Amino acid sequence: MKKVRIFLYIALAAVVVGGILFVNQGKEEKVKERHWMGAWMTAMQEPFDDGESHEGFKDQTVRMVVKPHVDGDQVRIRLSNVFSDEVLKVDKVSIGITKKGAETKEDPVSVSFDGKKDVRIPAGERTYSDSIPIKISKDEALTVSLYFKGESGPATWHPRSMQTTYSADGDAAGKAGKDGFKSIEKGWYWLDGVDVRTDKKVKGSIVVLGSSIDNGNDSKVDSNHRWTDYLSERINEKADGKWTVLNAGISANQLLDSPEEKGEKAPDRLKRDVFEQTGVKGVIVHQGINDIRHHPETDAVTIIDEMKAMIKEAHKNGVEIYGVTISPYNDSGKYTAEGDRTRRKVNAWMRNSGAFDGVIDFDKVLRNPDDPSRLQPKYNSGDGLHPNEAGYRKMAETVKLKMFDH
């Protein structure tokens, strides 16, 4: 599909005198002070073998909620058909400011693609919408609805979104109310990005390339209490909103392998999930825990070599890369002493090698000082692997914001 062209429509107050055109300089300068920035994203994967992602939708509206954490006066959305062999046809798309659940504050705004209300996305591709004149604040969420008149086919999607997803029979894309909508399997279907036209004080986007801890597993559904959400709030409060944080976590994702229903391995996701994001400035790599848990025989050198290759690729693409130490996982059900030794060796390399542009030490703040193989009880969700919301908040507080100012 031809890439969408973005036009900035500037309101001009103009008078022609003696053949000379005078414009409202103030409004023109205001537009020049804004630019497009990646504000929200999710990492996509193949449909499962059953459920809504496999069955798809027909004469139904899918409604999803996302929270960008940034102020802006226009938005554009990105739809993905990357994991499909067929053309995707979406008959209607709408967007509105979220009120509660499936409700929007006002009637949703129609979204166009190259000036058309429907869109066809070729197999294996993604596309942006036209710019949408809708204002959003950093405290608001967006509700995006997709209507399929015919069969959608299996979905390119992000499962376990920690956010309720809704569907309604027929065309409900333009409705603000919740009537007719019911909750379905949690996930973001085809929607993989939102850009916001925001102030140029927002310098860039930081992508978190991780797994279930980054996905926010075991946080409260619909709360936006992932550690990346807490980091966004902290940036808005402490760093005057200089950066946006884009979450590319996939539950059970790995560094070395691509198991079924766990997404492509992290290195294979760099181009799509990091380098192609609007305004990307850096990537936080939080990987290794699932390789160690599921394959305790994996040695530290293998993990380190893969991380070195990712560092090289990031720098080749002009993107800074930050490493995250691997937190403890004893009591998680797949703990081994061998795996824990590997974890500690990888962490020691991260802290001491200087290979990354910066290091975020989650292991140090989450581990139990009396038993470093375990999470501190106050940060343990109960499964020995995932932090609770207090742990997620502590993780966000650990990040040194000045690290991104290099």
Automatic annotation (TrEMBL):
Transmembrane segments: 6-24
Name by which UniProt lists this protein: SGNH hydrolase-type esterase domain-containing protein
Region annotation Disordered: where it falls in the sequence: 370-391
Keyword Transmembrane in annotation: yes
Domain SGNH hydrolase-type esterase: from-to ranges: 208-393
Keywords carried by this UniProt record: Membrane, Transmembrane, Transmembrane helix
InterPro entries per UniProt: GDSL_Rv0518-like, SGNH_hydro, SGNH_hydro_sf
